[in-house]
Design goal:
The structure is a homodimer of 605-residue chains. Chain A is of the alpha/beta class and 605 residues long. Chain A is built from 18 helices and 22 strands. Chain A has two domains: 376 residues, Rossmann fold, CATH 3.40.50; 193 residues, Rossmann fold (3-Layer(aba) Sandwich). At the A-B interface, helix 4, helix 5, helix 6, helix 7 and helix 16 of A face helix 4, helix 5, helix 6, helix 7 and helix 16 of B.
Chain lengths: 605, 605
C-alpha cells in the first residue's frame, strides 16, 4: 500500500525551519527569460558527502513543486528528507562517494528568493510583482550556485516531475556541465489535462477574495482556501486511482478525525481537506502560482522533430524512468523524450516501471527495489571512478539455447557483424550478445527489451537499453539508423512477425535473424511418427500450451516469407547446435538453428 | 475529434426556457430516505411519441447531473436535445414506436422541485434547508410520475452516468415495472478518485464567501466563482486525456477569445473558464451540491457479494455499456455490475466500447455507430411487439471451418448438449452455435466474445453476450454455474490454455472443447515431407506469421494435457470434416478435428 510521503515531511516542515540549510546571495542580478530582472538572488541549499579535490564527484538533485533543499536526512536523528530512499550513505545516490547538492527553487518559499521575499525596490514582498519565472531561470540560478561552489562538471543531474524538467534543461542548456541525466516521472511538456488542473488551482487562489491581488502578506488572512483547493486538486493527480482505492475504499464513509473547515462526509474528503490545510501552513500561494506556471510554460516541443531539435545540444548519457500508473506525467511522455534522444543518437536507457503508485511512485518505497537499482547502476557507470561492474548472472542455462547451453549462434552472429558497426539488438535480455560486441569496440550498441529485470541486468553491464514491446514497432528509431539489427531467437515470441521484420529492415541496413528450425529432422519425427506438437523451442521444458513461443517456422518457411515480402537473403547459416557444427547440405532437415542476414531488396547494401 | 456537446446545449439553455416542458405537482408529500419530507413536489418532464392504448410502449430516460428533460428535439426546428443521437424518429430509441418520457431530477433546477424552489414552510427558497436527496428519492419521484401518467410496466429504463445510477435503482427497487435496463458509462458507486473531485467542487462552492451559507438567492452575488471552479473540475473529468489533447494541443498557448474572469494563459484554461461561467448562468449552486452529493452517496456495495445482494431483486434484462477511455466511471466498474448480474443468473449483455471520448462518449456521436446499434438491437428485442430479428450474416465462410464451410462440429456439439441445459459459449462470435441451441429451448444461453462487432451480431440474435478476454479468466461466473461450457475452435487462439480450461471446468459441470488436430496426416506430411509449418488452422489463407492461432496441438497432445491436469475425458469425437465422417480408428492421424467432452476428475458427473 502506498504510504503518504507528504504526511511525514509536511508535519515536520511546519513545525520547524530546516536546520542544515546553507544559503548564498549570488553576485550580480539575474536576468530572467521573461525580461524581468532580480537584483539580489539568495539560494538556499543543502549538501551531503564531500566534494573531492578535483571537484568531479558532485550530483545535483532538483526538487519538484512542493519540495525543498532537504532531500535527505544528514544523520540518523535528523528530520526525514523527501528522497531518503534514493540519497544517503550506501543509497543509489551514495553520499559516501558523491557530493550531493540540493537547492531550493527560484520562486519558491523555502529559503531561495521568491514572491514572498522582500523586493529591494519597495521594501515590501514582491507578491504579484515577482516576475514570471521559467524552468530555465531556475536552472540558471542553480548554475550560478555551482559556479560559486567551484563545481565544474557534474556526475549527474537527477530529478523527478518538475525536477525532471530542470534536469532536461540542464542537459540541453549546459551540455558540458554533466555526464549523466536521470529523469524520473517527467515530460517534455505537460498534457492539456495536467495544464487544466493547474489552471483550476491557480484560479482558485486568484479568485479567493483574500488573495488581495497578491499583496496579502500584511493582511489578516491570505488566500488559504484557494491554496488548499489547489493542493487538494494536486493531491488527486499525484495518486493513481488504484492507490486512492487502497487508501480510502475500506473506510469510505468514515472521515479521519481531523479539524478541518472542509467537507468531511467522506474519508477521502477529510484526507484532502487535511492535506490542503497543512499545505497552507507551510507554502506561499504566490510561490505556488509562480512554480506551477513555470511548470506549465515548460515546453520542449509537441512533435518528434521539435523534440529532437530541443535535445540536439545535449551530450550526456541518459536514464529515463516512467511509472505505469502515472497519469499526470504519462509514460508515453517519457517515451517521447526517449524517442527524441534515440533519433539524436544519444546514449539513453529507458524503463517504464510497473507501479500502482501513480505520479508519486518516484518518491515512494513501493517500487524502489527495482528502479532504485537502475539509478544506482547508471550512476555507478558514470564515474568519476567507475565501480567495476558486478559479475552479472546470465540468463538461466537453456533459456535461449536450443539443445545445449553454449550460444553457438552468438559466436556466429558476432562474426557476422562488421567491425565498428552500430548494432540494435531486439529482445536483448540482460545484454549478453551486446556485452560481447562491446569488447570489440563497436560504434553504437543499443538493446530493446520488454522485461524490467533484464533491463536492470543490461544497465549493470553499462549498456543502453530501451524498454519496448517489439509488436508495437520501432517508431523511436530512424530509417537506417543502425548498420545491423539483430533478432536473435526472439522471432518465435513475436506476434506481428511481418511488422517486426519490416521495422528492423527500415531501421537497419541489414538484419540478422536467428530462429529454431521447425523442420529439423528430430522435430519432424515428433509430429510425423509420434503425432505430437514438436517441442524444442525456447526452454526445453515448455509445452505446447505454456511456451512463450507462438510462431513456428522452418528454414523453408522463412525463405518463402522473404520471397513474398521482397526481402533479400544475403547470407544463410544453418547450424546443428547439438553437434556444434555448421550444416552444409539439406539444411532444412539437418539444422536445428538458422541465422539469416537479410536486407531490403531495394536498399540493401 | 470529440465535439463539445455542452457548447450547443448550454448556449440555448441560457437564452431561453424549455418550450415543451410539462409539469405536474404530485399528490401528497414525498418522504425522503434521509428522513426529510417534501410536502409538494413538482416534476417537470417532456414526452415524445405516443403512449399506446395498453400503455406498454413507454421508455423512461434518466438524465445525468447537469442534464434536463429536453432529451431530444420535438421537431426539426426545435432546440437540440442532449441525446438527439439516441432518441427520435428512427433512432435506436425510436419515438415512432415508443412513448419516451424524460423528467428533470428531484433536487435539480430545471423545473422539478429543488433547493431553489420555494419552501412552503418559509415562503423562501429552500437553499441549504433542502433535505439530503438520494438517487432512490429521485426514482421515487419518477415512479410517482409514471403512476400519474398511467404507465404500468416500462419497456425499458435508459440512463448514462448518474442516469445509470437511477436505472440501476429502478431495476432493483421496482423490478416489476421494467422489462429492460440500459446502463451506459455508470457504476455501482463512485471511485474514491471521482468522489475526491466532487468533494473539491463542493468545497469550492461552500467556501465561496458569496455562498452565504446557502441562502444567496436574495443576495447581489451568488457563489459563482465556486460553482464555476466545480464545473471546471467536472469538465476535466468528463473528457479523456486523448480528447483533451485533440481539443487543445494544436493551439495550446492561444486562448479562445472569450470574456472570462479566469486565467487565460492557455487554450484549455480559456475553455474551462468559459464553460464554468456559462454553467453559472444556467445552474443553481445548491442543486449542484444536492445532485453531486446524491451521486456520491449512491452505493450498491464494494464487494461482489454485496453487489449480488443489491441486484438480487432485479428481474429485467440488461444491456450494460462502458467506454474504454472513461476514467470517471471506469469500465471495470461496469464489469462489477455485470459480474454481479451474471452471478445472479440475470439476463445481461455487456460491451466495453473502444473510444477516445472519455466519460462523455455516451453523449457524443463519435462511437455511436457501434453502441447505438447495440441499444437498438437490445430494445427491439424487448417488445412490446418485437421486431423480427434481421437476417444476420454469419462469419465469413471458412473463418471457423477446417477444410470447408459446413460446421460439422456444430452439428455434433449441439447433439452433445443435454436437453434444457445451461450453456456458456466461450468465443461465441455472432452467436451461430447459441442461436441453434436457442431453437431447442435450452435453459440458459450465454456467450463470451472479444470482438465488438460480433457482439452486436449476437445482440441482434437476441442472445446474452459478455465482452471479455478469455485469457483474463471467467471471474464473473460462479462455480458450476453452467451445465456445459463450450470452447469451439477458440483454443488455438488462447494464450493461457491451462488457465482457460481450468476456468471452464470450474464454471461448468462439463466442458466441450473442439480444435483442429495438428497430427492429421495431411499436416504431418507438410512438415515431414515438405519441411514446412503445417497450415490448416483457422482461415486457410493464414500463414505461420499472420494467423490468429498461437497454440498448436494434436489429439494425443490434448490427451496428455488432460492426464497431466487430472482432467477426465468423458467423450472424444474425432471428425474428418473434409470427408464429412466420424473417424473410428487411428484418430490422431485420420481426424482433422476433435471434440472432447471433459470434466474435472473429482467433481465431474
Amino acid at each position: 500500500m502506498a504510504k503518504d510521503h507528504f504526511e511525514s515531511s509536511d508535519a515536520i516542515r511546519t513545525a520547524q525551519p530546516l536546520r542544515f540549510v546553507q544559503s548564498v546571495t549570488l553576485a550580480g542580478p539575474i536576468r530572467l527569460e521573461s525580461g524581468g530582472i532580480l537584483p539580489d538572488v539568495t539560494v538556499a541549499y543543502e549538501t551531503y558527502g564531500k566534494l573531492n579535490s578535483t571537484a568531479d564527484n558532485a550530483i545535483l538533485i532538483c526538487h519538484a513543486i512542493s519540495g525543498d533543499s532537504h532531500v535527505a536526512r544528514h544523520h540518523a536523528e535528523d528530520d526525514p528528507g523527501w528522497w531518503d530512499i534514493l540519497v544517503g550513505p550506501g543509497r543509489p545516490v551514495d553520499t559516501n562517494r558523491f557530493f550531493v547538492l540540493c537547492p531550493n527553487l527560484l520562486g519558491g518559499c523555502r529559503g531561495t528568493t521568491g514572491p514572498s521575499s522582500i523586493n529591494p525596490a519597495t521594501g515590501k514582498p514582491y507578491g504579484p510583482d515577482f516576475p514570471t519565472t521559467t524552468i530555465g531561470d531556475m536552472v540558471e540560478v542553480e548554475r550560478r550556485l555551482l559556479d560559486h561552489l567551484g563545481i565544474g562538471r557534474l556526475v549527474a543531474v537527477v530529478g523527478g516531475s518538475v525536477g525532471g524538467h530542470q534536469t532536461l534543461t540542464w542537459a540541453t542548456r549546459h551540455p558540458g556541465r554533466l555526464r549523466g541525466a536521470v529523469v524520473l516521472a517527467s515530460s517534455p511538456r505537460l498534457t492539456s489535462q495536467a495544464l487544466a488542473f493547474d489552471v483550476v488551482g491557480r484560479n482558485a487562489i486568484r479568485r479567493d477574495p483574500h488573495y488581495h491581488g497578491g499583496q496579502y502578506y500584511n493582511q489578516p488572512h491570505g488566500p488559504g482556501v484557494g491554496l488548499a483547493l489547489a493542493r487538494m486538486i494536486g493531491h488527486i493527480t499525484y495518486l493513481s486511482p488504484e492507490a486512492m482505492n487502497q487508501k480510502f475504499e475500506a473506510d469510505r464513509l468514515h472521515p479521519r478525525e481531523v479539524a478541518i473547515e472542509f467537507e468531511k462526509t467522506f474519508s477521502v474528503g477529510s484526507y484532502l481537506g487535511h492535506q490542503g490545510m497543512k499545505f497552507v501552513e507551510r507554502f506561499d500561494a504566490n510561490s505556488y502560482i509562480t512554480l506551477s506556471l513555470a511548470m506549465d510554460l515548460f515546453d520542449l516541443g509537441g512533435t518528434p522533430e521539435q523534440l529532437a531539435a530541443s535535445f540536439s545540444p545535449a551530450q550526456c548519457r541518459w536514464l529515463v524512468l516512467s511509472f505505469s500508473s502515472d497519469w499526470l506525467f504519462q509514460p508515453r511522455q517519457s517515451r517521447d523524450i526517449v524517442n527524441a534522444l534515440i533519433r539524436n543518437h544519444a546514449s539513453v536507457s529507458y524503463c517504464d516501471i510497473e507501479s500502482d503508485c501513480g505520479h508519486d511512485a518516484f518518491l515512494l518505497p513501493d517500487d524502489f527495489d527495482r528502479y532504485g537499482e537502475m539509478v544506482r547502476a547508471f550512476i555507478n557507470n558514470l564515474g568519476p571512478a567507475p565501480v567495476a561492474p558486478g559479475v552479472e548472472k546470465d540468463e538461466l542455462p537453456g533459456t535461449t539455447s536450443i539443445f545445449h547451453e553454449r550460444r553457438l549462434d552468438y559466436d556466429r552472429i558476432v562474426e557476422l557483424i562488421p567491425p565498428a558497426a552500430s548494432v540494435l539488438d531486439l529482445g536483448c535480455g540482460t545484454g549478453r550478445l551486446l556485452a560481447r560486441l562491446k569488447l570489440q569496440n563497436h560504434r553504437r550498441l543499443v538493446g530493446v527489451e520488454l522485461d524490467e529485470h533484464k533491463i536492470l541486468g543490461a544497465l549493470r553491464r553499462d549498456l543502453d537499453v530501451i524498454h519496448a514491446d517489439l509488436n508495437e514497432g520501432l517508431r523511436a528509431f530512424a530509417d537506417k539508423q543502425f548498420d545491423c539489427v539483430v533478432l536473435s531467437q526472439t522471432l518465435p515470441a513475436v506476434k506481428d512477425v511481418a511488422g517486426v521484420i519490416a521495422e528492423m529492415l527500415r531501421v537497419g541496413q541489414t538484419g540478422i535473424v536467428s530462429f529454431p528450425n521447425l523442420a529439423f529432422h528430430k522435430l519432424r519425427r515428433m509430429l510425423a511418427e509420434e503425432g505430437r506438437a514438436p517441442r524444442a523451442y525456447g526452454w526445453l521444458k515448455d509445452k505446447w500450451y505454456d511456451t512463450a513461443d507462438i510462431r513456428f517456422l522452418s528454414i523453408a518457411d522463412f525463405e518463402t516469407f522473404c520471397a513474398e515480402k521482397n526481402i533479400r537473403i544475403r547470407r544463410r547459416i544453418a547450424l546443428n547446435t547439438e553437434a556444434g557444427v555448421e550444416v552444409a547440405t539439406d539444411a532444412n532437415r539437418e539444422a536445428d538453428l538458422a541465422i539469416f542476414v537479410i536486407s531490403n531488396e531495394a536498399t540493401g547494401r
